[in-house]
Request: fold
Amino acid sequence: MPRLCCACMFRMPGFRRRTALEKKLWRLRAQHRRNVLPAGDEAEGTEGSVAEAAAHTYLNHLTEEQLDNLTTSVESRSEFTQCIRASKDAISTEFGHVEPHALFCQIWRWPDLNTGQQELLKKLPTCSGTLDSTCINPFHWSRLCIPESPPPPYKQEARVFGDEVSKSKELEEHKNTTSTGWRLSRNSPPSSTETCEHYRSFTDVCRACGYASSRPPGSLAHWCTIAYWEHNKRIGRQLQVYDELINIFQVLPHSDGMCLGILHDEWYATEEVIRRVRDKIGHGMVLSREADGIWVYNRSEWPLFVHSPTLQDADTRPLTVIRVQSGCCLKVFDWEKSLTMGQLQMPNYLDGPYDPYCVQISFAKGWGSHYKRQFQTSCPCWLEIYLARLPNR
Reply:
């Protein structure tokens, strides 16, 4: 086979397109680093240069379609893009081996992520997985979070943790072999902008379009009930959840779930603070029931604030409220830990009613002793999630 000179290769349409896509990816990376890193920190360190060289090499092994999908994802900075399947084989660098998805997350999403923290990433439940490949779309991954201990004054940040790494990895592999996919329903639901009956009434079967939520085969039991509140007023009906996960959002393209935007259209907010927080909900969050507990994935651009009985020690006072940053995820309820806290059903140190199976989540605004708002009912927009007690619990 005759060899082609560089000039001939550059005149080939496919080669020119690949080159254009790669250049665009690196321009987008440079722009993102300028936006998120402090002034003066944009320069690459030694490890960053090694990671960039490794990414350059890895891009050469991607198909043109994979490069196109990656460029679309990085440019839109959205998880609502295609999965990009690639080999799970680790990439060898002078700093050790790094998995492809961790490398791409560091390069195109989280510049502060150390490639050695690759096991501190958790795949979104929206991303289907296989045993012999991995998704290198950086927006199909979330950073694992856990509160600091002890908490600092005023704010308690949710940060990357390492205690759940080995268990999380095993559960991820188990989920890949047992999961039937992420879809909330077998039927195609209408978009979130349509005012369909099943969004308005939160019923299981829609009289207008025939949409029916999927339920576990042979079971009619729901695993949680969700109530939406604004200050101390509940808005709309409670929603019972049967699927393994549910989207809770203000605006979300091409998806289904609990659309708060529909409720907001029906319930006019007289307070300016409520209207501002409503606008910040955006893509909201994913609530997911997984093998090791209940997880929340923050998909909005603003933090979530979480209180759960299993996120604080038995003798902790005051209330522990966890801040979950945008793009991060947190296990908000641990069934195993809840078993050891059974004696706290009526704890003496609490001042009011206590439900050991209730999780509270506020959008954008925190509450408690370290915040301006002392009580949950002072938050403009928040959720109350009542977990059903499993028969074997």
About this structure: The two ends are 68 Å apart (CA to CA). The mean pLDDT is 76. The chain has ten helices and 19 strands. Residues 13-36 form the longest helix (24 residues).
